Amino acid sequence: MTKKMAFVGAGSMAESILSGILDSGFLAKEDILVTNKSDFERLEHLERQYQIQYVEDKQETVTDARIVLLAVKPYDMEAAIASIRDYLNTDQLLISVAAGVSTDTISEMLGREIPVIRAMPNTSAAAGESATAVTRGRLATEEHLHTALELFRTIGTATEVAEEDMHTVTAIAGSGPAYVYYLVEVMEEAAVAAGLGKQTAHELLIQTIAGAGEMLKSSGLDPAQLRKNITSPGGTTQAGLEALDEGEFQKAVISCVETARERSIELGKK
Ligand SMILES: NC(=O)C1=CN([C@@H]2O[C@H](COP(=O)(O)OP(=O)(O)OC[C@H]3O[C@@H](n4cnc5c(N)ncnc54)[C@H](O)[C@@H]3O)[C@@H](O)[C@H]2O)C=CC1
Ligand SMILES: O=C(O)[C@@H]1CCC=N1
């Protein structure tokens, strides 16, 4: 069977996934086709950057693909599906990365018996470091699940979750990198305000985040223990953490996750 993969939607998520897939060698550039609604500059950019093929014609894009990956905004899903529906066949696997939109809704939009997998990657896919969760629609078999896991494992980790958990996954892992970047932005601003050079602050923070991530991955210790190991009684970390508590850090983060989760639910209803 063909190895080809078609991307419908050529925005930042499609680019992160396809650049990760190409870096990993999972697919050759000749096996990747990309299409978009109307922003042909994006397609030209992807062609220049990754030497993949772009095709304006939807039929040509999806007909020969083994996997069709929908990477359009939730509110564009209906139109995007309508534009490819007639050219799909039941041997293909449709993967959606749209936030909020359930596999049942996608199947309804399709109105055809095509297997569907819903996935939630994040933009760290571009660096081969996405944390992706996938869930199966009612027509997707173990083999389809295996294919999706294999695909997303080329761009990081991939785990199966129950569909009802996808909203929470979206809140912590899909959106998650943005919260980490925001933290870095704010810490950098505070360091610069205290007189440290911007570049020095930037480099120290990148390594601090990467190092903390590596410790979470490899030390075998839970985050609370790792935090305690840094916090000398009466020291700087304790003082900093107390200031975070005074600023209701926990409340803000819990509200962040809950609000993002609720938004995912809302996006699925529209
Ligand atoms: N950006 C992120 O970090 C993540 C995004 N997602 C999901 O990925 C999806 C895409 O998000 P982004 O790439 O950030 O958005 P984006 O706005 O960068 O890209 C969406 C692309 O879809 C195209 N498009 C719109 N309607 C279309 C149609 N009818 N047919 C073909 N193409 C069409 C647009 O021209 C655009 O290039 C969203 O559903 C989002 O929920 C999921 C995980 C992470
Ligand atoms: O903000 C969004 O809606 C998308 C889904 C997860 C990350 N970005």
From TrEMBL:
Q: Which UniProt keywords apply?
A: Amino-acid biosynthesis, Cytoplasm, NADP, Oxidoreductase, Proline biosynthesis
Family annotation (SUPFAM superfamilies)? 6-phosphogluconate dehydrogenase C-terminal domain-like (SSF48179), NAD(P)-binding Rossmann-fold domains (SSF51735)
Q: Name one GO biological process term.
A: L-proline biosynthetic process
- Indicate yes or no for the key word GTP-binding: no
Q: What is its EC number?
A: 1.5.1.2
Identify the residues that the record assigns to the Pyrroline-5-carboxylate reductase catalytic N-terminal domain, covering every copy: 4-100
- Residues that, per the record, bind NADP(+): 71-74
**Can you give the residue ranges of the Pyrroline-5-carboxylate reductase dimerisation domain?**
163-267
Give the GO molecular function terms.
pyrroline-5-carboxylate reductase activity
Please report the name of this protein according to its UniProt entry: Pyrroline-5-carboxylate reductase
Origin species: Lentibacillus cibarius
UniProt lists the gene as proC
